[in-house]
Write a structure and sequence with these properties.
The chain has ten helices and no strands. Helix 4 runs antiparallel to helix 5, helix 5 runs antiparallel to helix 7 and helix 7 packs antiparallel against helix 8. The protein has one domain. By secondary structure, the protein is an all-alpha fold. The chain starts with a helix and ends with a helix.
Length: about 210
């Protein structure tokens, strides 16, 4: 229910003119300290929030025997994809550089601005992994926050896009953690074992 409420209320707040004006002012304040010398570092750092990066973590967790965490993360990311693109094209908020003059972003994106997908990915991933692996939770949340800040700093999102993405990401990660996925883990393990066994038989038949 909390996730559904957030997906309804957060977009509605963008209809409040004062909220949008404050968001724009905050964006300009953050961008005021933009250092072009950091461009190469930021170009790679900000992509730590990319969906592909988080999907690549799933097999890494699986093959290091963190299989429950791997499936939890996978479920969280699949929900993120559904929610993110539903909201993006329903709200269709322009990127900051499309409406604010003199904004030169580090690069240009071609989908709507709200919510920040990178923030959603990073926070959903942080919760999905961190709630299963408690020692990593503070580090992952700090990383997610830095990624979120970088999205504003490089000029591709408003602060509200990032804050909303972070909140929705946390709710999605928490939802995934709350699910009993042990049956799913066992099903994947059994299917994987069958594939490995079949592959092994095939190799023995090669002269």
């Amino acid at each position: 229910m909390a996730l559904l409420a957030a997906c309804i209320i957060l977009p509605l707040l963008l209809q409040i003119e004062e909220m949008v004006d404050l968001d724009t002012r905050l964006f300009i304040e953050v961008r005021g300290g933009y250092e072009t010398e950091l461009k190469m570092f930021l170009r790679y750092f900000t992509e730590l929030g990319a969906l592909l990066i988080w999907f690549l973590v799933v097999p890494l967790l699986w093959f290091t025997k963190k299989r429950d965490t791997a499936v939890t993360l996978l479920v969280a990311l699949l929900v993120v994809v559904l929610v993110e693109y539903s909201l993006k094209y329903a709200v269709d908020r322009p990127r900051p550089y499309e409406v604010i003059s003199n904004v030169d972003p580090l690069y240009r994106a071609f989908d709507p601005s709200f919510p920040s997908g990178h923030a959603m990915n990073a926070f959903a991933g942080a919760i999905a992994i961190g709630k299963k692996w408690r020692k990593l939770l503070p580090i992952l949340l700090a990383l997610a926050a830095a990624i979120g800040f970088s999205r504003v700093y490089i000029g591709v999102h408003y602060p509200y896009d990032v804050a909303s993405g972070a909140l929705i990401g946390v709710l999605i990660g928490s939802l995934a953690v709350s699910l009993d996925l042990r049956g799913t883990v066992r099903w994947i393990e059994s299917r994987s074992k069958r594939l490995v066994d079949r592959f092994g038989i095939g190799r023995e038949q090669i002269p």
